[in-house]
Amino acid sequence: MNEKLSHARAKVEALGKLQLGFYPTPFHKLERLSEMLGVNLWVKREDFSGTSLFGGNKIRKLQYLLKDAKDQGCDTVFTYGATQSNHAMETCTAARRCGMRPVLYLGAIVEPKPNDVRANLLCDRILGAEIHILPSEGRSTKDTMKANAATFAAHRERLAKEGHKVYDIPVGGSTPRGAAGFAEGFIEIQEQAEACGLKIDYLCTATGSTGTLAGLTAGKILCGNTTTKIHAYEVGKKDPVEYPKSVAKLANDTLELIGEAPTATPECFHLSSAYVGPGYEKPYKEANDDIRLLARVEGIFTDPVYSGKAFHGMLDEIRKGVIPQGSTVVYLHTGGTVALFSEPEIIGDLNEDIA
Ligand SMILES: Cc1ncc(COP(=O)(O)O)c(C=O)c1O
C-alpha cells in the first residue's frame, strides 16, 4: 500500500477509536448509471456503516467521540438535532453499544404526532433514549439549540450532582475529534480507489453541520492529495460567507488535533447551495425524481433530507458539464434512508406512483 496513506492513517488512528461500525464500508461502481451519464461513477456506502440497519456517516465520528467519552469515564451521552435527526439516532445506537445512556434534545422542525411516531424518532424511542422535544418556532435547529443552551447545561449539572458523568456531543458530532473520523474516511476511500486502480477526480457529498466535509478536507491534506476535488451540497440554508469559513476552521482544528499544520482554506472544497430547495427537511420534485432514478437504475435508496439532495446536486452538475464527461466521480452515500419512513412533509411526493 501507498506509504503516504498508511502514514496518514496511523496519524489519525493515534487519536484512539472504538470499533462500532463495519469498516471499510463497501465501495463499488454504478455500472448502469455510469453508462447513462458518461462518467465513471462509483459509490462509497456509508449507509452500510452499522451499527444498525439504519447506518450512516455519524458512526465514523462516534468511533472517535465515544472512545474519548469512555476514556473520561462518562456513563451518559447528551446530543442534539432535529426530531428526525440521523445523528441523534446513530448516537443512541453507538451509546447503547458502549453501555452508555443517551439523552436527546430535539428541535421539532416538523412537528411529530404523538400517536404516529416515525422513523428516527421511533428508533430513538425503541433505543430507550431520554427524549426532550423543543419547539423550533421557525428557527433552524442550530438556533433552537443555542437558545436552549442554559437548559442543557442545568440538566448536565443536575446529573453530575447525582454522580453521573456526561459526555456532550454537539449537533452532528462536528467537533475536531468527530471530524477526524472523516479524515480517516477520506484515507479509506483513497485506499479502496488505489486497490481498484482508480484516480478519483471528484468526491461528492452532502454537508450539514460541517464535520463530514471538514474531515474529508483534513484527510485530503493529510494524504497530500492534490487531484481529487471535493464537491459538497448544502442541505439547509447557510450564510454564504461564514459557512465555508466554518468548514475550513473545523478542518484546521482537526488537522491540529492530529498534529498536522492547519493549511485548509475554503478553496480546498467546492460548495453548492443550489440544491437545498425550499429548506432543511423540505423536499422538492427534482431531488425526489433523482432519488427515484437511483432506486430504479441501481436499486439504491437515498433520503429526501441529505443523501438524495446531494445525489441530485451531483447529477445536475454532471448533466450541466460542471463535472466533465469522462470524469471518475465518487458519490459518498452518507445514509439517512430511515427518513423514507418519516412524516409526509419530509418525504414529499415520494409516495406517489410516478412513472
Ligand atoms: C444522512 C446524512 N448525510 C449527511 C449529513 C451531513 O453531515 P455533516 O453534518 O457532517 O455535515 C448528515 C448529518 O446529519 C446526515 O444525517
- In CATH, the architecture of the largest domain is 3-Layer(aba) Sandwich
* Bound molecule kinds, no repeats: pyridoxal-5'-phosphate
Write down the overall mean pLDDT.
96
Dominant shape: globular
Oligomer: single chain
Topology as H/E string?
HEHEHEHEHEHHEHEHEHEHHEH
- Count of distinct structural domains: 2
> Helical content, roughly?
40-55%
Find the count of extended strands (DSSP E, 2+ residues).
10
The assigned structural class equals alpha/beta
Tally of alpha and pi helices = 13
Short structural description:
This protein has 13 helices and ten strands.
Task: Kindly describe this structure.
This protein has two domains: 3-55 and 176-351, Rossmann fold; 58-173, Rossmann fold. Helix content is 43%, strand content 15%. The protein has 13 helices and ten strands. The chain has helices at 3-13, 31-37, 58-71, 86-97, 119-126, 141-147, 149-161, 176-195, 211-223, 242-258, 285-298, 307-319, 344-347, and strands spanning 27-29, 40-45, 76-82, 101-108, 130-135, 166-169, 202-207, 229-234, 270-272, 328-333. It has a six-stranded mixed sheet with strand order 1-2-10-7-8-9, sandwiched between helices. Strands 5-4-3-6 form a four-stranded parallel sheet, with helices on both faces. Strand 3 (76-82), helix 4 (86-97) and strand 4 form a beta-alpha-beta unit. Helix 3 (58-71) packs across helix 8 (176-195) and helix 9 (211-223) crosses helix 10. The longest helix has 20 residues, at 176-195. The chain is globular and about 60 Å long.
